[in-house]
Design a protein that fits this description.
The complex is a heterodimer of chains A (80) and B (273). Chain A is mainly alpha-helical and 80 residues long. Chain B has a single domain, classed as 2-enoyl-CoA Hydratase, Chain A, domain 1. Chain B is globular, with a radius of gyration of 18 Å. Classes of the chains: A mainly alpha (80), B alpha/beta (273). The interface between A and B is medium-sized, with 16 and 19 residues.
Chain lengths: 80, 273
Protein backbone atom coordinates (compact mmCIF):
# COMPACT_ATOMS: atom_id res chain seq x y z
CA UNK A 1 0.00 0.00 0.00
CA UNK A 2 1.40 3.35 -1.03
CA UNK A 3 1.60 6.14 1.52
CA UNK A 4 -0.08 9.47 0.79
CA UNK A 5 3.37 10.99 0.34
CA UNK A 6 4.28 8.37 -2.29
CA UNK A 7 0.99 8.92 -4.10
CA UNK A 8 1.52 12.69 -4.03
CA UNK A 9 5.03 12.28 -5.40
CA UNK A 10 3.82 10.03 -8.24
CA UNK A 11 1.06 12.52 -9.04
CA UNK A 12 3.52 15.41 -9.21
CA UNK A 13 5.93 13.41 -11.38
CA UNK A 14 3.17 12.39 -13.79
CA UNK A 15 1.80 15.96 -14.01
CA UNK A 16 5.30 17.35 -14.62
CA UNK A 17 5.97 14.83 -17.38
CA UNK A 18 2.69 15.24 -19.26
CA UNK A 19 2.38 19.00 -18.94
CA UNK A 20 6.10 19.58 -19.50
CA UNK A 21 6.85 21.43 -16.26
CA UNK A 22 10.12 20.79 -14.36
CA UNK A 23 9.28 18.43 -11.49
CA UNK A 24 11.11 20.61 -8.96
CA UNK A 25 8.74 23.49 -9.74
CA UNK A 26 5.70 21.57 -8.50
CA UNK A 27 4.72 21.42 -4.81
CA UNK A 28 1.86 19.52 -3.14
CA UNK A 29 0.07 22.71 -2.15
CA UNK A 30 0.13 24.21 -5.64
CA UNK A 31 -3.11 24.99 -7.48
CA UNK A 32 -2.75 22.60 -10.41
CA UNK A 33 -5.03 24.63 -12.68
CA UNK A 34 -2.70 27.61 -12.36
CA UNK A 35 0.59 25.76 -12.14
CA UNK A 36 -0.06 23.52 -15.13
CA UNK A 37 -1.93 26.30 -16.95
CA UNK A 38 -4.85 24.00 -17.70
CA UNK A 39 -8.58 24.49 -18.16
CA UNK A 40 -11.34 22.08 -17.20
CA UNK A 41 -10.85 20.01 -20.37
CA UNK A 42 -7.15 19.49 -19.68
CA UNK A 43 -8.01 18.71 -16.06
CA UNK A 44 -10.22 15.91 -17.38
CA UNK A 45 -7.22 14.67 -19.34
CA UNK A 46 -5.14 14.73 -16.14
CA UNK A 47 -7.81 12.69 -14.33
CA UNK A 48 -7.84 10.13 -17.15
CA UNK A 49 -4.05 9.80 -17.01
CA UNK A 50 -4.20 9.38 -13.24
CA UNK A 51 -6.87 6.68 -13.58
CA UNK A 52 -4.69 4.77 -16.02
CA UNK A 53 -1.51 5.25 -13.98
CA UNK A 54 -2.99 4.19 -10.64
CA UNK A 55 -5.49 1.67 -12.07
CA UNK A 56 -8.44 3.35 -10.34
CA UNK A 57 -11.62 5.26 -11.12
CA UNK A 58 -11.83 8.89 -10.05
CA UNK A 59 -15.47 10.00 -10.36
CA UNK A 60 -15.78 13.66 -11.34
CA UNK A 61 -17.84 14.49 -8.26
CA UNK A 62 -15.02 13.35 -5.98
CA UNK A 63 -12.53 15.77 -7.51
CA UNK A 64 -14.95 18.60 -8.17
CA UNK A 65 -13.73 21.71 -6.35
CA UNK A 66 -10.31 20.14 -5.75
CA UNK A 67 -7.56 22.48 -6.96
CA UNK A 68 -4.35 21.45 -5.15
CA UNK A 69 -2.17 18.41 -5.75
CA UNK A 70 -2.22 17.25 -2.14
CA UNK A 71 -6.02 17.03 -1.93
CA UNK A 72 -6.13 15.36 -5.35
CA UNK A 73 -3.59 12.81 -4.09
CA UNK A 74 -5.77 12.11 -1.05
CA UNK A 75 -8.73 11.41 -3.37
CA UNK A 76 -6.54 8.99 -5.32
CA UNK A 77 -5.32 7.40 -2.09
CA UNK A 78 -8.91 6.69 -1.05
CA UNK A 79 -9.37 4.61 -4.22
CA UNK A 80 -6.15 2.57 -4.07
CA UNK B 1 -8.21 -0.49 -55.15
CA UNK B 2 -9.49 2.98 -54.38
CA UNK B 3 -13.05 3.77 -55.45
CA UNK B 4 -14.02 7.29 -56.54
CA UNK B 5 -14.73 9.69 -53.73
CA UNK B 6 -18.27 10.67 -52.93
CA UNK B 7 -19.01 14.23 -53.91
CA UNK B 8 -18.91 16.42 -50.82
CA UNK B 9 -21.50 19.19 -51.08
CA UNK B 10 -20.11 22.68 -50.51
CA UNK B 11 -22.98 23.40 -48.14
CA UNK B 12 -21.74 20.98 -45.45
CA UNK B 13 -19.81 23.20 -43.07
CA UNK B 14 -19.33 21.09 -39.99
CA UNK B 15 -18.40 17.73 -41.49
CA UNK B 16 -17.20 16.04 -44.64
CA UNK B 17 -17.07 12.53 -45.94
CA UNK B 18 -15.32 10.41 -48.49
CA UNK B 19 -15.46 6.85 -49.81
CA UNK B 20 -12.22 4.91 -49.97
CA UNK B 21 -11.69 1.17 -50.44
CA UNK B 22 -15.30 0.35 -49.60
CA UNK B 23 -15.39 2.44 -46.43
CA UNK B 24 -17.12 5.79 -45.99
CA UNK B 25 -15.28 8.04 -43.56
CA UNK B 26 -17.36 10.79 -41.96
CA UNK B 27 -15.15 13.45 -40.36
CA UNK B 28 -16.65 15.90 -37.87
CA UNK B 29 -14.80 19.22 -37.82
CA UNK B 30 -16.94 21.81 -36.10
CA UNK B 31 -14.98 23.75 -33.45
CA UNK B 32 -14.61 23.78 -30.57
CA UNK B 33 -15.80 20.19 -30.08
CA UNK B 34 -18.44 19.30 -32.67
CA UNK B 35 -21.36 20.73 -30.72
CA UNK B 36 -24.55 19.54 -32.40
CA UNK B 37 -26.79 22.49 -33.20
CA UNK B 38 -28.90 23.46 -36.18
CA UNK B 39 -25.99 23.69 -38.63
CA UNK B 40 -24.50 20.32 -37.78
CA UNK B 41 -27.97 18.75 -37.73
CA UNK B 42 -28.59 19.98 -41.28
CA UNK B 43 -25.18 18.66 -42.35
CA UNK B 44 -25.88 15.28 -40.74
CA UNK B 45 -29.18 15.13 -42.62
CA UNK B 46 -27.31 15.78 -45.85
CA UNK B 47 -24.85 13.05 -44.96
CA UNK B 48 -27.58 10.50 -44.21
CA UNK B 49 -29.19 11.20 -47.58
CA UNK B 50 -25.81 10.67 -49.26
CA UNK B 51 -25.20 7.56 -47.16
CA UNK B 52 -28.35 5.92 -48.50
CA UNK B 53 -27.28 6.70 -52.05
CA UNK B 54 -23.76 5.33 -51.45
CA UNK B 55 -24.69 2.12 -49.67
CA UNK B 56 -24.28 0.05 -52.83
CA UNK B 57 -20.64 1.15 -53.12
CA UNK B 58 -19.60 0.78 -49.49
CA UNK B 59 -19.60 -1.85 -46.78
CA UNK B 60 -18.47 0.12 -43.74
CA UNK B 61 -18.77 3.58 -42.24
CA UNK B 62 -16.34 5.22 -39.84
CA UNK B 63 -17.36 8.34 -37.91
CA UNK B 64 -14.53 10.31 -36.32
CA UNK B 65 -13.57 13.81 -35.22
CA UNK B 66 -10.82 16.09 -36.42
CA UNK B 67 -11.17 18.29 -33.34
CA UNK B 68 -8.40 17.89 -30.76
CA UNK B 69 -10.78 18.26 -27.82
CA UNK B 70 -12.68 15.15 -28.66
CA UNK B 71 -15.34 13.34 -30.63
CA UNK B 72 -18.21 15.63 -29.66
CA UNK B 73 -19.34 17.62 -26.63
CA UNK B 74 -22.96 16.90 -27.56
CA UNK B 75 -25.85 19.26 -28.09
CA UNK B 76 -25.02 22.93 -28.58
CA UNK B 77 -26.36 24.18 -25.25
CA UNK B 78 -25.47 27.81 -25.96
CA UNK B 79 -27.52 27.72 -29.14
CA UNK B 80 -30.35 25.93 -27.34
CA UNK B 81 -30.39 28.56 -24.59
CA UNK B 82 -30.25 31.50 -27.01
CA UNK B 83 -33.01 30.03 -29.17
CA UNK B 84 -35.22 29.44 -26.13
CA UNK B 85 -34.97 32.94 -24.66
CA UNK B 86 -38.19 34.90 -24.85
CA UNK B 87 -40.29 31.90 -25.79
CA UNK B 88 -43.22 30.55 -23.81
CA UNK B 89 -42.71 27.08 -22.32
CA UNK B 90 -44.99 25.63 -24.99
CA UNK B 91 -42.98 27.30 -27.76
CA UNK B 92 -39.71 26.10 -26.22
CA UNK B 93 -40.96 22.54 -26.11
CA UNK B 94 -42.25 22.71 -29.70
CA UNK B 95 -38.81 23.84 -30.88
CA UNK B 96 -37.01 21.16 -28.89
CA UNK B 97 -39.37 18.45 -30.13
CA UNK B 98 -38.84 19.46 -33.75
CA UNK B 99 -35.06 19.31 -33.28
CA UNK B 100 -35.24 15.94 -31.51
CA UNK B 101 -37.45 14.43 -34.22
CA UNK B 102 -34.86 15.43 -36.82
CA UNK B 103 -31.80 14.19 -34.92
CA UNK B 104 -33.60 10.92 -34.09
CA UNK B 105 -34.31 10.44 -37.81
CA UNK B 106 -30.57 10.89 -38.52
CA UNK B 107 -29.39 8.55 -35.77
CA UNK B 108 -32.05 5.93 -36.54
CA UNK B 109 -30.92 5.96 -40.19
CA UNK B 110 -27.30 5.44 -39.14
CA UNK B 111 -28.33 2.77 -36.65
CA UNK B 112 -30.32 0.93 -39.34
CA UNK B 113 -27.74 1.32 -42.11
CA UNK B 114 -26.80 -2.02 -43.70
CA UNK B 115 -23.16 -0.96 -43.47
CA UNK B 116 -20.96 -1.95 -40.54
CA UNK B 117 -20.69 1.35 -38.68
CA UNK B 118 -17.80 2.29 -36.40
CA UNK B 119 -17.40 5.32 -34.16
CA UNK B 120 -13.69 6.07 -33.69
CA UNK B 121 -13.74 8.32 -30.64
CA UNK B 122 -11.23 10.28 -28.57
CA UNK B 123 -11.33 12.88 -25.82
CA UNK B 124 -14.66 14.42 -24.90
CA UNK B 125 -17.52 12.14 -25.94
CA UNK B 126 -20.37 13.66 -24.00
CA UNK B 127 -24.14 13.77 -24.22
CA UNK B 128 -25.26 13.95 -27.84
CA UNK B 129 -21.77 12.99 -28.98
CA UNK B 130 -21.95 9.82 -26.92
CA UNK B 131 -25.42 9.22 -28.38
CA UNK B 132 -24.05 9.56 -31.92
CA UNK B 133 -21.37 6.97 -31.08
CA UNK B 134 -23.97 4.64 -29.57
CA UNK B 135 -25.91 4.64 -32.85
CA UNK B 136 -22.90 2.92 -34.45
CA UNK B 137 -22.31 -0.84 -34.37
CA UNK B 138 -18.86 -0.59 -32.78
CA UNK B 139 -17.17 2.05 -30.67
CA UNK B 140 -13.39 2.08 -30.89
CA UNK B 141 -12.00 4.42 -28.27
CA UNK B 142 -8.67 6.16 -27.83
CA UNK B 143 -7.53 5.36 -24.28
CA UNK B 144 -7.92 9.06 -23.35
CA UNK B 145 -11.63 9.15 -24.24
CA UNK B 146 -14.11 10.33 -21.60
CA UNK B 147 -17.75 9.27 -21.89
CA UNK B 148 -20.46 11.15 -19.99
CA UNK B 149 -24.17 11.87 -19.90
CA UNK B 150 -24.25 15.22 -18.06
CA UNK B 151 -27.90 16.00 -18.86
CA UNK B 152 -29.28 15.41 -15.36
CA UNK B 153 -27.02 18.22 -14.14
CA UNK B 154 -29.26 20.55 -16.19
CA UNK B 155 -32.52 18.95 -15.12
CA UNK B 156 -32.86 16.96 -18.34
CA UNK B 157 -32.40 13.45 -19.66
CA UNK B 158 -30.43 12.60 -22.81
CA UNK B 159 -32.64 13.38 -25.80
CA UNK B 160 -30.82 11.96 -28.84
CA UNK B 161 -31.68 8.34 -28.05
CA UNK B 162 -28.99 7.83 -25.44
CA UNK B 163 -30.96 5.98 -22.80
CA UNK B 164 -32.50 3.28 -25.03
CA UNK B 165 -29.25 2.75 -26.92
CA UNK B 166 -27.15 2.62 -23.76
CA UNK B 167 -29.62 0.12 -22.27
CA UNK B 168 -29.25 -1.96 -25.40
CA UNK B 169 -25.50 -2.29 -24.81
CA UNK B 170 -24.81 -1.99 -21.08
CA UNK B 171 -26.10 -3.43 -17.84
CA UNK B 172 -28.52 -1.49 -15.65
CA UNK B 173 -25.93 -0.77 -12.95
CA UNK B 174 -23.74 1.07 -15.43
CA UNK B 175 -26.66 2.84 -17.11
CA UNK B 176 -27.95 4.15 -13.79
CA UNK B 177 -24.47 5.11 -12.58
CA UNK B 178 -23.75 7.12 -15.73
CA UNK B 179 -27.14 8.85 -15.79
CA UNK B 180 -27.92 9.39 -12.14
CA UNK B 181 -24.48 10.68 -11.13
CA UNK B 182 -23.60 12.47 -14.39
CA UNK B 183 -20.03 11.26 -13.94
CA UNK B 184 -17.68 10.45 -16.76
CA UNK B 185 -16.00 7.13 -17.58
CA UNK B 186 -12.70 6.45 -19.29
CA UNK B 187 -12.37 4.08 -22.24
CA UNK B 188 -11.19 1.11 -20.18
CA UNK B 189 -14.22 1.35 -17.91
CA UNK B 190 -16.48 1.76 -20.94
CA UNK B 191 -15.03 -1.39 -22.49
CA UNK B 192 -15.53 -3.34 -19.26
CA UNK B 193 -19.13 -2.11 -19.26
CA UNK B 194 -19.73 -3.41 -22.79
CA UNK B 195 -20.06 0.01 -24.40
CA UNK B 196 -16.70 0.07 -26.18
CA UNK B 197 -15.47 -2.86 -28.26
CA UNK B 198 -11.78 -1.91 -28.61
CA UNK B 199 -9.44 0.50 -26.83
CA UNK B 200 -6.70 2.09 -28.94
CA UNK B 201 -3.49 3.82 -27.93
CA UNK B 202 -3.50 7.62 -27.87
CA UNK B 203 -4.13 9.01 -31.33
CA UNK B 204 -4.68 5.56 -32.86
CA UNK B 205 -8.47 5.11 -32.76
CA UNK B 206 -8.94 6.01 -36.43
CA UNK B 207 -6.16 3.65 -37.55
CA UNK B 208 -7.68 0.82 -35.50
CA UNK B 209 -11.12 1.64 -36.92
CA UNK B 210 -9.74 1.50 -40.47
CA UNK B 211 -8.21 -1.93 -39.83
CA UNK B 212 -11.50 -3.10 -38.32
CA UNK B 213 -13.48 -1.77 -41.28
CA UNK B 214 -11.09 -3.50 -43.70
CA UNK B 215 -11.79 -6.79 -41.91
CA UNK B 216 -15.57 -6.24 -41.94
CA UNK B 217 -15.39 -5.39 -45.65
CA UNK B 218 -14.18 -8.93 -46.43
CA UNK B 219 -17.58 -10.42 -45.63
CA UNK B 220 -20.60 -10.77 -47.86
CA UNK B 221 -22.58 -7.52 -47.35
CA UNK B 222 -25.97 -9.25 -47.40
CA UNK B 223 -24.87 -11.57 -44.60
CA UNK B 224 -23.35 -8.73 -42.56
CA UNK B 225 -26.52 -6.65 -42.90
CA UNK B 226 -28.72 -9.61 -41.91
CA UNK B 227 -26.53 -10.34 -38.89
CA UNK B 228 -26.68 -6.70 -37.86
CA UNK B 229 -30.48 -6.56 -38.07
CA UNK B 230 -30.65 -9.70 -35.92
CA UNK B 231 -28.06 -8.55 -33.36
CA UNK B 232 -28.98 -4.90 -33.02
CA UNK B 233 -32.70 -4.17 -33.05
CA UNK B 234 -33.59 -0.48 -32.87
CA UNK B 235 -35.59 0.27 -29.68
CA UNK B 236 -38.09 2.49 -31.50
CA UNK B 237 -40.80 2.52 -28.82
CA UNK B 238 -38.33 3.55 -26.10
CA UNK B 239 -36.81 6.15 -28.39
CA UNK B 240 -40.22 7.76 -28.83
CA UNK B 241 -40.83 7.74 -25.08
CA UNK B 242 -37.45 9.38 -24.52
CA UNK B 243 -38.44 12.33 -26.74
CA UNK B 244 -41.66 12.73 -24.75
CA UNK B 245 -39.81 12.61 -21.42
CA UNK B 246 -37.22 15.14 -22.57
CA UNK B 247 -39.96 17.54 -23.70
CA UNK B 248 -41.89 17.09 -20.45
CA UNK B 249 -38.76 18.05 -18.46
CA UNK B 250 -37.68 20.81 -20.84
CA UNK B 251 -40.88 22.74 -20.19
CA UNK B 252 -39.80 23.56 -16.62
CA UNK B 253 -38.25 26.94 -15.82
CA UNK B 254 -35.57 25.20 -13.72
CA UNK B 255 -34.04 23.88 -16.94
CA UNK B 256 -33.68 27.36 -18.40
CA UNK B 257 -32.03 28.47 -15.16
CA UNK B 258 -29.58 25.55 -15.39
CA UNK B 259 -28.82 26.40 -19.02
CA UNK B 260 -28.31 30.07 -18.11
CA UNK B 261 -25.78 29.18 -15.40
CA UNK B 262 -23.94 26.88 -17.80
CA UNK B 263 -23.85 29.44 -20.61
CA UNK B 264 -22.86 32.39 -18.43
CA UNK B 265 -20.15 30.51 -16.55
CA UNK B 266 -16.75 31.90 -17.52
CA UNK B 267 -14.60 30.32 -14.80
CA UNK B 268 -12.07 27.55 -15.16
CA UNK B 269 -14.57 25.07 -13.81
CA UNK B 270 -17.73 24.52 -15.86
CA UNK B 271 -21.01 25.02 -14.07
CA UNK B 272 -21.72 21.68 -12.42
CA UNK B 273 -24.34 21.28 -9.70
Amino acid sequence: MKTLEQTTDELLTLAARHFKIPREELAPTDDFYRKLKIDSLRALELITRLEHHFGIELPDYEVQGVTDFHTLASRIQARL
Amino acid sequence: MTAPRIHVPDKAKTLSWELKDGTIELALHHPPCNEIGMVMLADLEQFVAALRAAEGNARALIVYSRQDAGFSAGADLRELYAASLGLTPAERVAGARAFLERIHAVLNAMDASPLTTIAAVHGVTFGGGFELALACDLIIADKMTRFCFPELRLGLVPGFGGIPRLRRDAGNAVVRDLLLTGRSFNATKAMAAGIVSQVAAEGEALAVARATAAQANKFDPTTSAAAKRFLKPIPREELRREIDLFCELFERTAVMEGLRKFVENTGTHPYLP
